[in-house]
Structure formats: structure tokens, C-alpha cells
Amino acid sequence: MAYSVLIVEDEMIIAMEIAAIIKKMGHAVVGTAMNGEDAISLSELRHPDIVLMDIFLKGMMDGITAAEIIYQTYAIPVIYLTANSDVNTLERAMKTKPFGYLTKPVNASDLQTAIEDAIRKSRLLS
Prior knowledge:
Blueprint: E1 4-8, H1 12-24, E2 28-33, H2 36-46, E3 50-54, H3 63-74, E4 78-82, H4 87-95, E5 100-103, H5 108-125
């Protein structure tokens, strides 16, 4: 099944790589945001099936805060992406009960599994 995906990543090259992987899997990329505020706006506008959220974003709001708002407001499941997995950040992220957590660089197989699992979990909760 094909899903609509919002990518939230402040490094454009990484966002493009992830978008290419998602498109190869047959899913649609409905937008790319580079900061938390834009992620929230695009979530409202496009209501994707899933959001891939970088934890560390440039700007006033990090990915953890944006993910909390997106899930609480729009009930869109979020999968965290990060290259850094320090204990404090990981603990803070896990308190938000994400639907998945992937470390970068992301590979297609792990991403596909995470998307399928997140969608399944989300449907069970709704």
C-alpha cells in the first residue's frame, strides 16, 4: 500500500536522499519542511499518513516538540530520525511515544519496516 509522507529534515541533501528512497518504495512525498513550524503547517495542510522527523532542527523548535504538537493536534504518527543518539535526547524523544525511531543514514529496508509498523500501530490506536 502507498502512503503519503512528510519529511522534516534541515539538511536538504539528506531530505532529497530520503525522498528518493520513499518514492522508490512507491510512497508519495507530500512535502519537505526544514523546521518545526513548517512541519506543523504542512501537517495541517497536507495531512500526511506519516511524518519522518529529524530530532535536531534549525530554528526555534526542535523535532521532538514539533512531533508532539503534530501528533496531539492531527493524530499523525511520527517516526524520529537522528544521527545523534545521546541518552538525554533519546529519553526525551521516547517520552513522546514515537511510532518509530531510526538512525541516519537511513536504509530503505529499515525505513519501509518503520513506516509499515507506524501505520499499523496508529490504526490500532484510532
